[in-house]
């Protein structure tokens, strides 16, 4: 497996190590393009938000760890949360703020927020980017109030995940090369055990984009690029449940009182 990769920069490609956070600066213009390099993050954000119930009290707080450009925000609209996002990448946080997220620049392994402040903590497509992911899990659980909800999705530490999410996905025109370092993928059992150590009983389910929708989307996108270079429109693929957690999986768990 190569450990360096070229990231597609708007100002010309530069070579960065896999999972180097500076890739998110190079790709800053992609976050909110529905058919851009981060398209799948939009689909996953919708699926993650579906795990979050409406707030049960005024002023309820949702802390979005590794919030990126705030793609979760539109899917939380009307649920009654104050949405606070924590991320390392300033160029992403600027965009998150433009979408109504209250942003905090910081590392998810040492979050500058008080213990028990959050009704919900979200960690979407984050843990597989954090070398010390158990530390990020400890922080997520620390932030939750008793009875608070943790929702997350990540990539499993399996040969199949490495094949699908790196070797195959990075050959598609829509997935940035080098965005993942497969050595950081998150073993599902270890994640459940780590959450349990911090008082959260995490339940997992495998997820994937719906195949027909994904193929139709790739076709539409290819046609749009060929004809005009324009962004295609049309329904985004849905994220559906799958029996296996071997590639991509969601987790949902409540912090004990
Ligand atoms: C794949 S993106 C996911 C963004 C967002 N959760 C979403 O689903 O749209 C990963 C994000 O995690 C952030 N990130 C990676 N490591 C981090 C760390 N140690 N602390 C804070 N943010 C981090 C990156 O800057 C990037 O915005």
UniProtKB/TrEMBL annotation:
Chain intervals for the UniProt region annotation (Disordered): 1-21
Keywords assigned by UniProt, alphabetized: Methyltransferase, Transferase
Superkingdom assignment: Bacteria
A Pfam family that the UniProt record links to this protein: Methyltransf_11
GO BP, sorted A to Z: methylation
Keyword match Transferase: yes
Gene3D superfamilies on file: Vaccinia Virus protein VP39
GO molecular function, one term: methyltransferase activity
PANTHER family: JUVENILE HORMONE ACID O-METHYLTRANSFERASE, METHYLTRANSFERASE
Protein name: Methyltransferase domain-containing protein
């Amino acid at each position: 497996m190569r450990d360096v990769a070229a990231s597609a920069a708007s100002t010309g490609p530069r070579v960065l190590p896999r999972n180097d956070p500076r890739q998110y600066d190079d790709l800053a213009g992609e976050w909110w393009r529905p058919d851009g390099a981060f398209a799948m993050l939009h689909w996953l954000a919708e699926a993650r938000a579906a795990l979050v119930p409406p707030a049960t009290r005024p002023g309820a707080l949702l802390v979005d760890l590794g919030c990126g450009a705030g793609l979760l925000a539109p899917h939380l609209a009307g649920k009654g949360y104050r949405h606070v996002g924590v991320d390392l990448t300033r160029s992403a946080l600027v965009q998150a703020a433009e979408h109504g997220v209250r942003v905090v620049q910081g590392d998810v392994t040492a979050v500058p927020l008080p213990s028990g402040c959050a009704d919900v903590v979200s960690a979407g497509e984050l843990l597989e980017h954090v070398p010390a992911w158990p530390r990020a899990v400890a922080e997520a659980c620390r932030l939750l109030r008793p009875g608070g909800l943790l929702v997350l999705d990540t990539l499993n530490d399996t040969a199949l995940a490495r094949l699908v999410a790196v070797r195959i996905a990075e050959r598609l025109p829509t997935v940035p090369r080098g965005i993942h370092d497969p050595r950081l993928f998150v073993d599902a059992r270890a994640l459940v055990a780590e959450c349990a150590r911090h008082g959260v009983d995490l339940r997992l389910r495998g997820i994937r984009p719906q195949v027909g929708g994904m193929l139709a989307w790739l076709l539409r996108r290819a046609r749009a690029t060929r004809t005009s270079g324009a962004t295609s429109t049309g329904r985004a693929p849905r994220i559906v449940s799958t029996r296996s957690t071997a590639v991509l999986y969601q987790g949902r768990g409540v912090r004990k009182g």
